[in-house]
Amino acid sequence: MATNLTPTRFADDTVLSISGSNSTELQNIVNTELDKVDEWLRFNKLSLNYPKTSYMIVSRKNNQLIDFNVKINGKTITRTTCVKYLGVFIDDKLTCSNHIAYLENKLSRSDGFFYRIRQYLSDTALKSLSFSFVYSHLQFAIGAWGGVGITASNQLNVLHNKIIRAMTYSSFRTKVTPLFKKLNLLKLDDIYSLALGNIMHKFHSGNLTDNFNRLFTPVNQVHCHATRSATKGAYFWKMAHTKYGKRSLKQLGPKIWANINPSLHDSSPLTFKKQYRDVRISALDDR
Description:
The protein has 287 residues and is mostly helical. It folds into 3 domains: 6-80, no CATH class; 95-182, no CATH class; 191-286, no CATH class. The chain is 50% helix and 10% strand. The protein contains 12 helices and 10 strands. Helix 2 runs antiparallel to helix 3 (123-139), helix 4 runs antiparallel to helix 7 and helix 7 packs across helix 11 (249-258). The termini are far apart.
């Protein structure tokens, strides 16, 4: 099917995306392209689940585009301001506020849970449960939402710290860094850094798609000087001026990679993840 829409598929979920600067022109293009999609579905004897089909306009501007109307096969598609895709809530302003609220709700319930059960379980059992009820949610796709989410909300850190204090029978005034160190657990910011480190390692090893090539450029391809960063396999980054830009994958990924021991650069994925996690745990002493 020839179309200007960019498809992203996973199992039976499909996302069609297109960009434009003029709302009227964009609406006409989308409806024209959806006619092609409808024709392709009919030709292949497939049906669309209309109740589960929606569209979203992603823009940082406050323009609501009230008259924007999308149809396929004569049926109007409902507009949404947030969609859950592959386990992550994506909103039309890319603020990750809905996903943060979802995580805060999860951690709020876990907080009371750990206070109630801690007297019946050993430290090992509590730690094991923390991976199931806490870290599984914090780690999931944090490379996608962490740059914006961690900056925008301090409540996640507060809830995470409360759970750690509950697990260790500590008062609310107790400093949490030694507690994380004692339990050999990562703080939220370190979970994000570990995720970015893993992404950079996969990119360095050639295990990511070509879409990432526009994000990372080796320093030795930017200039021919034998600087330390060029000889250590570092990646180039431009200065960011916003708080979100400074915590983005494009900005923070190369910075994290530059501080990783070059001996780990060519290690196996499992070895890298384990040893870099140990590095982040050890660095808790310095904060």
